[in-house]
Amino acid sequence: MSLQYVGLSEINGSLVVLDHVKDASYDEMVELQLKDGSTRLGRIVQIEGERVVVQVFEGTNSLSLANTKTRLLGHPMELPVSKEILGRVFSGAGKPIDGLGDIYAEKSMDINGQPLNPVARVYPRNYINTGISSIDCLTTLIRGQKLPIFSGSGLPHNQLAVQIVKQAKVKDDDGSGFAVVFAAMGVTNDVAEYFRRSFEEAGVMQRVVMFLNLSNDPIIERTLTPRCALTAAEYLAYEHDMHVLVIYTDVTSYCEALREFSSSKGEIPGRKGYPGYLYSDLASLYERAGISKSAKGSVTQIPILTMPNNDITHPVPDLTGYITEGQITLDSELNSMGIYPPVSVLPSLSRLMKDGIGEGYTRKDHSDVSNQLFAAYAHVQDVKSLTSVIGEDELTPVDRKYMEFGRLFEQHFLNQGFNTNRSIEETLDLGWTLLSVLPKNELDRIDNAVLEQFYDHEKAVAQFDLQEDTMIKELQQAVDNG
Questions:
Q1: pLDDT band at residue 173 under the 50/70/90 scheme
Q2: Which residues are in the ATPase F1/V1/A1 complex alpha/beta subunit nucleotide-binding domain (predicted)?
Q3: Which H helix or E strand runs over 300?
Q4: Range list of H helices, 245-396
């Protein structure tokens, strides 16, 4: 028997309060019927004895304290799913908004997900190729991993997200076993249209599931968007054995909606006004990445977040860093130099890449190339600091080689453009060419056998049009200066 409650005790913003409600459950869906017969959906967000607080999805305009009829539906919010969701565009609450009609659902799934037994998890191995050298070589994305992108205001994280969606693939993909679930939270209409148009023009829309929550949509919908996206991903991964990459932006918008929602409930705020349960709430999203023994598919996450004032100690990036397995950091200085994507190499890392690269996964020299590029570029920063003190004329020939390497590394390796898609072989070969600019005895992070096989100084000199002899270079500069 379904009970219907007539009247409301209180209306506060998007929240309504009912008294004398029995057997209610947290997160249970509620249907509210207005005086004119129209209905709205809500969700129970707080229970105090027989007093419940309901968040109304469509807002509380025109609701009446006396005449509103409320019915508990007996289940949490569910997302109807089938293989038809591929190529479709949904609102943040999972309703089709592309004009193609409703989904013919095979089943409905709880958007909060099912708990994944830790014992049933498979350790993430093998990589997802993004076609972006700075990611594939230095911060490799592993299937089943959660690897966030830390960005800032004005940085091209939206373009980077589109490029990853366009280019991402798995090594053994035949075109049918890989999908991307893309969710945008709190974006403007032009940004949402940019995402949709870019995927359609790139011809990848048939493997993408899109969830769009606009900035003028209700904040409750924004808190549902990543959960709907992850539910769709889990369905494709665990029911249809697909490798699914989930990209959602912007996590900071999600957290701000959570802060506003928490404040409206009168909860005690934590750091910078965010709720005290922000860590566990973010963990409930991020920890839905992984691989299960019972399925051949995987769920991999790339959450994108903008750091307010580029502050990496802000609660959102700070807590995200504790939960996830590394990060990709974008740099405003590289962006101002015209380098795209402006990935800041040194603060970026992928903690799982060591077990998903090398022979049998990428190439046997991958680890050596990655370690040496990191070490060489870190030395470049030391040489730059030294140069600011003593001047470039006082540098040793070896340090000048490092400065040359740093310039070439930024211009040819990091900077690759929006439409350039490099294979892992092309990326590693380019890495070797750049390392060959340096003297052979400086490459101390590489096994000697591997070094003998790949080091080719003559090729580097020819490719980058370098002057081999420093004395000749200085003499030529003197002639040019008269």
A1: low
A2: 131-350
A3: strand 298-306
A4: 251-264, 278-286, 315-323, 332-336, 366-390
pTM for this entry: 0.91
C-alpha to C-alpha distances, 221 to 45, 91, 472, nearest whole angstrom: 13, 8, 66
Amino acid code (one letter) for 459: K
C-alpha of 167 from chain center: 15
What is the spatial distance between Cα 172 and Cα 70, in angstroms, rounded to a whole number?
51
Do the beta carbons of residue 118 and residue 296 sit within 8 Å? no
Helices 157-167 and 189-202, packing angle to 10 deg: 30
CA distance 304 to 301: 10
Task: Give the pair of three-digit tokens for residue 141.
Answer: 């994305």
Q: Which residue type occupies 47?
A: I
Please identify which residue in the block is written with the tokens 């004005």: 154
Beta pairing class for 39-48 and 51-56? antiparallel
Q: 176 falls in which pLDDT band (50, 70, 90)?
A: low
Q: How far apart are CA 124 and CA 142, in angstroms?
A: 6
pLDDT in tens, 45-75: 889 988 999 988 888 888 888 888 999 998 8
- The answer to whether the CB of 391 falls within 8 A of the CB of 101 is no
